[in-house]
Amino acid sequence: MKIATYNVNGVNGRLPVLLRWLEEAKPDVVCLQELKAPQEKFPEQAIREAGYNVIWHGQKSWNGVAILARHLDIIEFGRVLPGDPEDTHSRYIEASINNIHIGCLYLPNGNPVPGPKFDYKLKWLQRLANHAQELLNKNIPVILTGDYNVIPTELDVYKPERWVDDALFRPEVRMAFSDLMTQGWTDAIRQLYPNERIYTFWDYFRNAYGRDAGLRIDHFLLSPQLVERLVAAGVDRYVRGWEKTSDHAPVWIELRDLP
After folding, report:
1. For the segment 160-169, what is each residue's pLDDT rounded down to a tens digit?
2. Helix H segments across 138-230?
3. What domains can you pick out in the chain, each with its CATH number?
4. Which segments constitute the Endonuclease/exonuclease/phosphatase domain (predicted)?
5. pTM, to two decimals
6. d(CA 60, CA 91)
7. pLDDT digits (tens, 9 = 90+) for 19-75
8. Which residues of 123-144 are buried (b: 16+ CB within 10 A; e: fewer)?
9. How do strand 92-97 and strand 75-78 relate by DSSP bridges?
């Protein structure tokens, strides 16, 4: 079973790129972030014609998340991260597909630091940690994936000294991510590639992609029930080189089917 996450940076503007990648890569499940489309403007028909069932939580101009499943049923469990009834951002959606519980998330960027956006990011991380612990307590297979806007270590960023004051790399954010991991989650990419420099995002400016000046901020966190089923993982970085593409590349894992 191949599961992917992809920050599309505008699902309608990047629709040709998304459909091309879906046709070539044929993932079974895809979590999308940064749809930048209100609920009624999501390109549902095009996605379904590509062979995918889909649920989504849109928002005008900003945010937005979706889960696609190729010829598989989607059982939705919620589209709001618990913990703040006043939070109106479309940043989380959760479903079960093929007996795997999947949370698709778009964590706040948090810049500038300090400020209310950074405070919101830290609170969102705490809410995520609380919900993640509840999911672990269920003792079921769970994946929490998406654009975390967190650079976990210096290995995950080109020239880390340039990022020390950025909300993606601040010590408070990295510590919150580390605390989340210690609940019992496994970073799928680092499980298979513990020491390799792997990026998932390259800025549009200063020829970042051409220079490979990237970041790893799109992550797959696996519950203990899934770690032994992990057989492959990677980044389709070539998609970042296509015309009119997102500044993120799709990230994917493959899980061994249960006997």
Report:
1. 999 999 999 9
2. 171-181, 188-192, 208-211, 224-227
3. 2-255 (3.60.10.10)
4. 4-248
5. 0.98
6. 13
7. 999 999 999 999 999 999 999 999 999 999 999 999 999 999 999 999 999 999 999
8. ebbebbbebbeebbeeeebbbb
9. antiparallel
